[in-house]
Amino acid sequence: MTPRDLPALTISELQPLLRRREVSPREVLEALHARIDEVDPRLGAYLSVNRDTSFAAADAADGTLPLGGIPIAIKDNINVAGESCTCASRILENYRAPYDATVITKLRRAGAVPFGKTNLDEFAMGSSTENSSAGPTRNPWDLTRVAGGSSGGSAAAVAADLAVGALGSDTGGSVRQPAALSGIVGLKPTYGLVSRFGVTAFASSLDQVGPLTKDVRDAALLLNAIAGADPQDSTSLPGPVPDFTEHLGRDIRGLRIGIVKEHALQGIDAQVKAALEQATNHFHSLGAELVEVSLPHTEYAVAVYYVLATAEASANLARFDGVRYGQRAANPQNLLDHYERTRAEGFGREVKRRIILGTYVLSSGYYDAYYLRAQQVRELIRRDFTRAFEQVDVLLSPTTPAPAWKIGDHEADPLQVYLADIFTVPANLTGICGISVPCGFAEENGTRLPIGLQLLANTRDEQRLLQVAHAYEQTTDWHRLRPPSLAAS
Amino acid sequence: MAEGELDVEYVAKLVRLRLTPEEAEVFQEQLAHVLQYVNKLSDVDVSGLEAAAHAVPMFNVFREDEARDCFTAGEALQNAPRQANGLFVVTKVVE
Q1: What ipTM did this prediction achieve?
Q2: What backbone torsions phi and psi does residue A237 show, to the nearest 5 degrees?
């Protein structure tokens, strides 16, 4: 093996090499840096890579720990002490994190080396990483298309072997959707399983940090490191955390997989539909029992999500006022001018749209019609899922209704982009866990575009979720296929 | 119903966002479109339903009231746009 091969390895392949000292953490980092230098100017996956601090951490890494010496890329809305944390927003352009998020503390405790901050939609608001003040991340399979979002930088970095694994955040699909569009694995854990402390808040009742990896086992390994109760996050779930790799390799004979009746109505791309049918048959051939279930309030999920997510965002983003941190407009005439210009200059268009919408649905006279009603319908959606999980162990659907779109295609029509979140937002609204796994490709003018399937399981049922995802993955080849060479010609 | 109600420029004032005329016009149209879609929620019978504020309801999570490490003044100020004498410098509030 040459150093050039290192970035393509999975965490579980790299681990024994580091433990036996056949390669050093520094060599792995150097190999990643070389690959980033070569490829990232055309991909735009990273916003910053601090070589000095990551080398220091790599040299100090303890190879006997579970993730000893493994570099992990971090979405740039997760605070890493001493590193910039821009959230891809002009307003935080020069912000340096004064502390580690709990997930970073936990990664370090497991021996991992936080390495590089990845691109995202500004404050994680978007599904394409086009809403980044630094410009879009491109899809490694087709550089004219989006990598998905909002954790598009993390997804593209892992898919193009610019990272062995990464962390993202998932508020309405922001880990699973870019994983699907980039051809990798993305896991959204149960709400509260992973601490949100130190993760810049977008919608606090929906946000959850999750891993983006090359295979299911790696997702389980990263979850092992980051999961667990945190006194710094009052919404974190109490109680012990199991070993998430424990059920990997168990067969899935007799497990009940739910197919959602209402999903047939959702306008799914023909090639995505075909890939999902093939995957459904594959699960059947593995001995799983397929059961049709109903989630009657499916069609309201996107509406509920965009009311609640924007309402929470409008409150969370009120802190960006140019007083204690972040950019401040030059020479303010008075306090109002200070606030209005600071926020006008600091925020991008999608963030402004969402702050306005969120404020509106919370405002006197409209609160009952929008915010309260959305919370009530959220309860109905939760009941739908409770009933479904009485009948089945996991639910199967596509992750997205269509493969990656062309950069710039949906700029003028935000609603079109919102509607594509139909399969992912219910997991955030209900707090359950979900994973996206590669399940095929769409062909568009001779270019192959990845397709992902999504599995959902009940709250705290990650072991079973990972077991089913792993059973599928290990009997198919999709996750082993890599994008065409991205080396500069 | 949505188009008549949402006044983007008024709401922008409430949230301290100065929009350009172009932004105000485009957002007005785009958000009216989004609200029109969101209005499908009015079809749902929600009578007698509790509002779900959180996916996994938890209440009254307390911690012990003990001293612990926190930021020094210097650390708290390190990202301040303007500071002096260990304090945040803010825009003049009282004329």
Answers
A1: 0.93
A2: -75, 130
